[in-house]
Amino acid sequence: MGSATSRGRLPERAWMVRLRRGSRSVIVATGLRRQAAERLADQIAELLDTGQRGAAHPQP
């Protein structure tokens, strides 16, 4: 069965990335392969971590 976002998708493309804080959440992407979902989650975590500490890599 699965969730509405995974119905009809190939099993390898049924990954999603969701951000949560307490009881609130937002789905960022659906229909990803596992590797792409993990990469996106890592990039978001890095971005959020950088935001907590300030700009770690100043842009020109």
What does it look like?
With 60 residues, this protein is α+β, with helices and mostly antiparallel strands. The protein has a domain at 11-51. It has one helix spanning 34-53, and strands at residues 15-21, 24-32. A two-stranded antiparallel sheet has the order 1-2. The longest helix has 20 residues, at 34-53.
Distance from N terminus to C terminus (CA atoms, Å) equals 49 Å
Tell me the radius of gyration.
15 Å
Globally, the shape reads flat
Q: How many strands, which pairing sense, and closed or not: the largest β-sheet? A: 2 strands, antiparallel
- In what order do the strands lie side by side in the largest sheet? 1-2
Q: Provide the structure class.
A: alpha+beta
Low-confidence stretches: none
Oligomer: single chain
Strand composition percent: 25-35%
* Fraction of residues in H or I helices: 25-40%
Average pLDDT for all residues:
80
Number of strands: 2
Helical region count?
A: 1
Give the H and E element order: EEH
Write a compact overview of the structure shown:
By secondary structure, the protein is α+β, with helices and mostly antiparallel strands. It is built from one helix and two strands, in the order E-E-H. 33% of the residues lie in helices and 27% in strands.
